[in-house]
Amino acid sequence: MFSHQYTDAQATFVELTTATGALRLTPGHYLYVNGKTAQARAVKVGDHLETASGSPAVVTGITHVRDTGLYNPHTLHGDVIVDGFRTTTYTDAIAPTMAHALLAPARALYTMNVTL
After folding, report:
1. 83 and 21 Cβ atoms separated by less than 8 Å
2. Residue % of the chain over a pLDDT of 90
3. CA-to-CA distance for 104 and 31, rounded, in angstroms?
């Protein structure tokens, strides 16, 4: 399920570069940094991002770029793999624990095979 899919929306993104690739996400989006969740805006060069395989990737560069497209998928467990990196489906719009609780009914309906 997506809370939003704005293909034409313009936004500023944080681009985090590592030796294994780059990840672009909004500044308030949460991802796994140094073994815990943090907002993209808080990541620093030298921090470790979690890759899809679970191994760490050291951040070697950080830039801010304007780009088109805003998407916010939601999964049963609250995580998603983006460009080879493990991120959450949560942003600073609503605290992650609150967002996960608010989405519990949608997850329950999905697991019962009920279409929204």
Report:
1. yes
2. 53
3. 20
DSSP string, 15-71: EEEETTEEEEE-TTEEEEETTEEEEGGG--TT-EEEBTTS-EEEEEEEEEEEEEEEE
CA–CA distance, 55 with 68 (Å, rounded to integer): 30
Residue 63 CB partners (closer than 8 Å, separation 6+): 14, 15, 17
Rounded-to-integer distance, Cα 97 and Cα 67, Å = 29
CA distance 57 to 18: 6
Res. 67: pLDDT tops 80: yes
Q: What is the pLDDT of residues 25-66, one digit of tens each?
A: 999 999 999 999 999 999 999 999 999 999 999 999 999 999
